[in-house]
Request: fold
Amino acid sequence: MASQHSSTGIASPASILARIPIFDVCSEPNLHDLAAKSMIRYYEKGKVFFLSDDAADYFYIVVKGWVKLFRETLDGEQAVIDILSQDHVFGETSIFHNHEYPYSAEAVEDCTVLSIPTKALEQLIVANSEFALGMLQAMAKYRKHQEREIEHRSLQSAAQRIGCFLLRIAPQNAHGRINIHLPYDKTLIAARLGMQPETFSRALNKLRDETGIRINGASVEMDDIRHLSSFSCSACSSNFPCEDLSKND
Amino acid sequence: MASQHSSTGIASPASILARIPIFDVCSEPNLHDLAAKSMIRYYEKGKVFFLSDDAADYFYIVVKGWVKLFRETLDGEQAVIDILSQDHVFGETSIFHNHEYPYSAEAVEDCTVLSIPTKALEQLIVANSEFALGMLQAMAKYRKHQEREIEHRSLQSAAQRIGCFLLRIAPQNAHGRINIHLPYDKTLIAARLGMQPETFSRALNKLRDETGIRINGASVEMDDIRHLSSFSCSACSSNFPCEDLSKND
DNA sequence: CGAGGGTTTGAAGTGCATCAAATAGTGTGG
DNA sequence: CCACACTATTTGATGCACTTCAAACCCTCG
Reply:
């Protein structure tokens, strides 16, 4: 197969792996070995990939759909760590945590994923030091991402966090009028940003009043992205446009 | 011991490096090479090691004193990332960030540190794949630590966060009566936990009322650590006792 | 059309921040 | 050893942001 399963319209394991940055440095044989051990799987909305502390034999790459990473407290509260879209990797750090997943993962809508044995990843790291280095790099990048996340949660208001979220899904070098489509439920975005749905709704209105964006259901329109960035980024230590930190797990 | 500078009472670079976990896998020659390129330096209270986005030529290991890592927003707000004590490493991830420091660092009291050229670290990573692997491991561990931090900030109350902080500095397997000495200013602890000094003071009183701990200045005494953990850990997804995640940068 | 989810709005409560001021603690010079 | 200056900490009063609970609205889809 060149790159498509003609029957499903889904890319082949090898072609999926090929577009994930951390595998860039892998040789063809490396990649094909990995692909041979991988499997395309389907998870319907609400299905759980794994729970925090489960034994980890596979990690995943999102091919289609959205995946929620989260942790739950004894109180029954849920902390959403991230919502992942296409080409994001999850569960791979289990290899550094006693082969247990450090968070839970659930399909928030029907998903196609590539599942890969963690064992194959471990072998790859040991065998290919350039790959290990790339992995370190990705880890460092994600770490910075998290530091920013911590900062946002403590310094930004709800409205600013929403603005920041919109900036991240907007084309960052955009000029003039922009139209953004919210990628998933407002309720889920709220959870992702660590606030209640009610707060999200009200804060979005406040953001509209402050920045002149226009909201219509899941579509958000604005004349100039800078209205948003001057409102949101003043409470952030990174300068706009922020480097894109999204393409990592 | 052979490894002490008799004149200063400060350990030699080699002996400092030897007790840092990530260097465990280094060979003697590796370690001595690193030590030869390192330098003991003194920073008085308030002195800045570096600012966020500065060009990074050195990373550091805390030998004595306390170091604050933080970032500042345009608004002038400060987000404290961490307070580091002896044997903690900082600034090393600059090698993955364009040789720029991803945060600012300042001595919160008179400090002795070991400064090491980042170049030497890079060489070590490339030359010693086992070391690279260890670094990955440390990175993964820190990442989990951060995930917990994010969770704490969104799900725990101020009083619970303080309790959690106390649990982390207490001997975790302790039984019966315990006495803890706060390691630095209450104001600084407050900043570390993302709250105002006033809030810290009030929340600490609340914690006392709820858990029966006794507070006297910087000393905190309790009869059973479990009073604290049942109060604080109910809003956390990790079970007490939490794994010790402190010995990482 | 009606059921059920997602979303918004209203009213009230809670927790933390803020501003102001009192108090305790620490180090200094006399 | 004491008085003073200065800082850390606590306390009080008030305000704001977010949450909570309740109910309405809206949209989609059978």
Summary: Residues 157-158, 195-196, 198-199, 202-203, 217 of chain A lie near DNA strand D (CB under 10 Å from a C1'). Residues 180 and 220 of chain A are 5 Å apart (CA to CA). The mean pLDDT of chain A is 90. Helices of chain A lie at 13-18, 28-37, 118-127, 129-155, 158-169, 186-192, 197-211, 225-232.
